[in-house]
Amino acid sequence: xxxxxxxxxxxxxxxxxxVLKRFPELVGRKIIIATPELSTFAGGLGRVMKFFxxxxxxxxxxxxxxxxxxxxxxxxxxxxxxxxxxxxxxxxTCQ
Length: 95
Fold this sequence. Notes:
It is a single chain. This protein has helices at residues 2-14, 16-22, 45-58; strands at residues 30-35, 62-67, 72-77, 80-85. By secondary structure, it is of the alpha+beta class. It has one domain.
């Protein structure tokens, strides 16, 4: 429980030594995370994954993220869902 509290409120002060002590088997390995949302910020998951992966990197872990590339997004038009092509060039957080 104390680790959860420390990660929630003081993760920046824990440092890479905390990971070495608690999870020595992760050191020197690549952590690959697959997520349906990271850069599009369409919902809340993108922000959570952005903070999560940056926190893992602050602890000195080697993290790589795989994100789905979507061809379409869903827009509501007159209260009905419609598929529209997703333009990654227009997405400010996708670059």
